[in-house]
Amino acid sequence: MQTLHAVTKEIGNEIASPARADSGPEAWHTLDAEEVAGRLETSRRGLSQREAARRLEERGLNLLGAAERAGVLYILLRQFKSVVILILAAALVLSAVSGQWPEAVAIAAVLAVNVMIGFFSEWRATRSMDALRRLGHGRARVRRAGKERTVPSERIVEGDVLLLQPGESVAADARLISSEGLRTNEAALTGESIPVSKGVEPVADDAVLAERGCMVFKGTSVGDGTAEALVVATGDGTEVGRISHMAREARASAVPLEQRLDRLGRRMALLVIATGAVVAGVGLLAGQPTLLMIETAIALAVAAIPEGLPIVATISLAHGMWLMARRNALVNKLTAVETLGATTVIFSDKTGTLTENRMVVRKVVTPDGTHRLTPGGEPKEDATGDDPLFRRVLETGVLCNNAALSPDGTEQEETGDPMEIALLKAGRRTGLERERVLRERPEVREVSFDRETMMMATFHRVGDGLEVMVKGAPEAVLDVCRRAIGPDGEDSGFGEQERERWLRRAEEMADEGLRLLAMADKSATDEGEEPYSGLRFLGLLGMWDPPRHEVRESINLCQHSGIKVVMITGDREDTARAIAEATGIIGDPDDPEERVVHGRDIRPPEESSEQELGRIHAANIFARVSPEQKLDLIEIYQQRGEIVAMTGDGVNDAPALKKADIGIAMGKRGTEAAKEVADMVLRDDAFDTIAAAVEQGRVIFNNIRRSVLFMLCTNGAEVLAVAVASLAAWPLPLRPLQILFLNVLTDVFPALALGVGKGGGEEMERAPRPSGEAIVNRPAWLAVGGYSALIAFCVLAAMLSALHLLGLDELEAVTVSFLTLAFSKLWFVFNLRDPRSTILSNEITTNPWIWGSLALCAVLILAAVYLPGLSEVLKTRTIDGGAWTLALMMSAVPLVVGQAVLLLGGCGSKTAAAGT
After folding, report:
1. Distance CA 515, CA 510 (A)
2. Least confident of 34-48, 105-119, 334-348
3. CA distances to 191, 208, 832 from 711, in Å
4. Which of 400, 430, 624, 890, by CA, is between 20 and 30 Å from 466?
């Protein structure tokens, strides 16, 4: 209820967006109703049908604009910007030109799979603004030519008279011309969860959005009361339209995984071009046939590209999505899974994410003393229903009330203002059930809450007399009290000195983050008596939205793992600080590095000094923040190299959710606009779900990194083996189709098994990865080079031994080198364990998918040699036991060397560490 904002001199302080420097006709909140009607050339009778049609034709439908979507063909063609795709396309062209049609068909199939994966991922992401546009649909009641009509919301025009009643959505921004107890729910627009009381009086020019009490806004809804309002803006001219425009203009940061894979692709391209140029140049100078050089170039291109990587990355991320869904985190975009693992800052909303999104009576202060309740609202030993003053305060709150509880305590059936619901629940816990108390003191009159008085009153029959119960803003109630109830229940005087003492007490409670109500009563002889005169002060009642039970542990876990948790809220500074202390976001409230920054002190980064930027970067709490300022905060942190996760639930959060590295929307209370734009949706709105998702994101990135290392080491071996053989004028140890067979089939299954590992359980004990860290860092590249050279040496040694020692022909010798490479790939998986683990018990050997993938690949390798038709296409031959022994022995060398290096430390330790 709006009275909560009247505790101190900051009554109604700014909460949502900063006032625009408007002047003239757009500053509708500064004009009285008659002047607004004059400027809009309308009246209380409304527009004529003809004039409404003319304005609709002139100004367009009351719909939000949308960013122009990329066409299907454009999205498809954009996939060919990928370096990996271009190299495969070049190999395809070379194969077709040289008449090597089996190779061309195989490469075309791999190319199509990779293109379609990228196409469908991007095509799915083009729907982000549909939910905002849907705000324009529905029906609204208007008065036109003096008659009430119901029209489609999109056909509302400026100058229409909107007729509002409880439960209806507001179809456009409008200036109130009459109001009967109107209160609107503006949480979707401003982030303020308490219903806002409205009136018809104009407000100051610099009033922020949440202070414009004479205005109603598109996308909000009517909670209580009725009203008439003149439409002053439609479509993109509304406040939600302005936010929609920001969301369209906000540019989402490139996803870290996409950046890293792109960099990796460019490095592979350089490797292919450089190696191919050297090999082709040397070969042609040595007189090698041109067709052989083309075949070699195709083999090098195919060998260098990890064709299965997009498939492995996609399935690994999809597996992570499934695991997160089991933890109540629904991921809209695959790459968001990995981004979570790199997150260094979490901007969290307060209401409903850190708190339970319900009001609870926390403290009652009477002239008899302070009565504290538990965080959940249960009376403590010093706050029982037997205390007469404590009971009188709660009784007043129960009677002076319009809310209703369900008999069985079901929250879904609760109706009314959250504060009044909290009063009824506190009364129920102390034996003051509203229905029973009303039977004893039946209500005979109600004076509804009014923005002018900031109070509400009810009259109740007690015997032959009447009792008046009053609740309201402390300043307003204290100003009309002339007596106070004493500790013994007797009345005492209440002068200016006492009033000032209670005002100071109210300020102290407000500093604790409590929302306050003052309670008063009096006796009356007639129900028509003025309710707000000669009152007796009873006490102050403080409420809060309690923090979730599990949130402190989750925040501590994030902070321990190097993630900074920052609260962003539209609420008051003192309320934000109290919740931050209760949840562990800040420790010592006096620490200068842990301070609150008010929204008025946040400016765009280009307009801020380095000192101001440093202060913002060091803060843990941002209060009274607007949608534009959320964008500024994200940009400030991103410019300092942070990976930012942002939570949000309202339409006003859509731009920030889109701009953040990962946007997280609330599933329970979130608007459809927020959910559609977000990368992830929390089904339970809980912060601990974010912490669990961050942990899973780190696991996923580690798994993808292992998969990449596996593919690079084995693909590097293929490149080196083909290049060295070509330069030495030896037979090629691998044919293009053999390489494709290994890369697309036998590589993919072990890589997938690595990609779905459960992790080592220590992911949240380490700091986030540096924002610019590559998937394969420098130590890992050295390890890739070493292992690639070792495997290539084994492949070439096996082929040459088969040719010269065993006397096999060329195709049989190539089969031996093919088998050597194939099995060395399988054994190499075990070299990717953590160096701190043991040989027999580690994250590789305990992964059942690894063993299944190895068994399947072994069958596929045997089929490549012994299955008729397939062996002809791959140009393999059956070999005897001696050749098999040679292939298996040489394939085991990298495994033995790798395990020895892991045991001794050094380069192998770096590799494994990079893989973890």
Report:
1. 6
2. 105-119
3. 48, 56, 12
4. 430
Cβ atoms of 263 and 217 within 8 Å: the answer is no
Query: Are the beta carbons of 616 and 561 closer than 8 angstroms?
Result: no
Give the pLDDT band (50/70/90) at residue 189.
confident
> What does residue 542 show for φ and ψ, rounded to 5 degrees?
-110, 135
Instruction: State pLDDT tens for residues 583-595.
Output: 999 876 555 555 7
Query: What tokens appear for 882 in the block?
Result: 């001696």
CB 866 within 8 A of CB 878: yes
Supply the DSSP symbol for 404: B
Dihedral-angle region of residue 46 (phi above 0 means left; psi in -120 to 50 means alpha; beta otherwise): left
Write out 183-243 in H/E/C secondary structure. EEECHHHHCCCCCEECCCCCCCCCCCHHHCCCEECCCCEEEEEEEEEEEEECHHHCHHHHH
* Phi/psi at 457 (5° precision): -140, 150
Are 356 and 545 contacting, i.e. CB atoms less than 8 angstroms apart?
Answer: yes
Would you say the pTM of this structure is higher than 0.90?
no
Distance CA 858, CA 746 (A): 8
Q: Which residue do the tokens 């208007």 mark?
A: 142
Burial class of residue 751, CB neighbours in 10 A (0-12, 13-18, 19+): buried
Distance CA 260, CA 256 (A): 6
User: Any idea which residue has 């190097």 for tokens?
Assistant: 562
The pairs formed by 522-529 with CB atoms below 8 angstroms and a separation of 24 or more are 522/467, 522/468, 522/470, 523/465, 523/466, 523/467, 523/468, 524/459, 524/465, 524/466, 524/467, 524/468, 525/465, 525/466, 526/466, 527/444, 527/445, 527/459, 527/466, 528/445, 529/466, 529/468
Tell which CATH classification among 3.30.1380.10, 6.10.250.3280, 3.90.1640.10, 3.40.50.1000 matches the domain 330-356+548-685.
3.40.50.1000
Please, are residues 665 and 648 in contact by the beta-carbon 8 Å criterion? yes
Amino acid at 659: K
Secondary structure tally for the chain: helices H, strands E: 32, 24
What does the chain come to in residues?
916
**Mean pLDDT for all residues in the chain:** 82
Annotate 738-787 with three-state secondary structure: HHHHHHHHHCHHHHHHHHCCCCCCCHHHCCCCCCCCCCCCHHHHHHHHHH
Active-site positions? 349
Q: What is the mean pLDDT of residues 350-356?
A: 84
Q: Which two tokens stand for residue 177?
A: 């011309």
pLDDT tens track for 430-445:
889 999 999 999 999 9
Tokens 């809980």, residue located: 686
Q: Which amino acid is at 421?
A: I
- Is residue 740's pLDDT more than 90? no
**What is the CATH superfamily name and number for domain 254-328+693-759+773-915?**
Calcium-transporting ATPase, transmembrane domain (1.20.1110.10)
Structure tokens at 588: 């010592």
Query: 147 — phi, psi (to 5°)?
Result: -120, 140
Q: What does the angle CA 104 – CA 107 – CA 113 come to, to the nearest 5 degrees?
A: 140
Task: Tell me the C-alpha distance between 91 and 108, whole Å.
Answer: 9
Residue 552 and residue 580 in contact, taking contact as beta carbons nearer than 8 Å: no
Compute the distance between CA of residue 576 and CA of residue 682 in angstroms, rounded to an integer: 22
**Separation between Cα atoms, residue 838 and residue 73, nearest integer Å:** 52
CB 159 within 8 Å of CB 62: no
Spatial separation of the C-alpha atoms in residues 282 and 294, rounded to whole Å: 13
CB 443 within 8 A of CB 427: no
CATH 3.40.1110.10 residue ranges for the chain: 360-544
